[in-house]
Amino acid sequence: xxxxxxxxxxxxxxxxxxxxxxxxxxxxxxxxxxxxxxxxxxxxxxxxxxxxxxxxxxxxxxxxxxxxxxxxxxxxxxxxxxxxxxxxxxxxxxxxxxxxxxxxxxxxxxxxxxxxxxxxxxxxxxxxxxxxxxxxxxxxxxxxxxxxxxxxxxxxxxxxxxxxxxxxxxxxxxxxxxxxxxxxxxxxxxxxxxxxxxxxxxxxxx
Length: 206
Fold this sequence. Notes:
The structure is a single chain. By secondary structure, the protein is of the alpha+beta class. It contains five helices and five strands. It has helices at 31-54, 72-81, 98-105, 122-135, 176-182; strands spanning 9-10, 59-64, 110-116, 142-144, 197-204.
């Protein structure tokens, strides 16, 4: 999918410390249970948060899969607002429909939301983390990046880089605005060419 500026955010807001853990992921009855469960989850997933930053992400956090929103209007914006529509095998109409994405999300509880700048290779980050999670035993791990695939100048009949190529969030019908905001990350429409953007990706974990 080509660069659709409506999918990205400016980051004129004040910088903040990103712990990588969203307490809203866990719903338990007491403060002691919240503390205990949160500590366990941080211990399990902290290495993936650290790894994402090592690979170039500005931030990463564990989120609830049910906070990820897929909507039909996103597909329409791809088809009628992006000059990359149909340009590669990771773009619509080849990528999963919003309905398929919603069904897939129903098989997951958690994901890793990754935030990067225009200089971060989100596709590479999510593909790398997906592979590492899989080898760690998270056999359902699946990553979705940002923007068009740039591994080839032109796709063949089948993908020549199946281990590395991943569809963008938008290509799968995910509403990046609602999803990012629901999980504490800022996102706004870019109103000028000189606005700097945030790029988001997700690795579904388990």
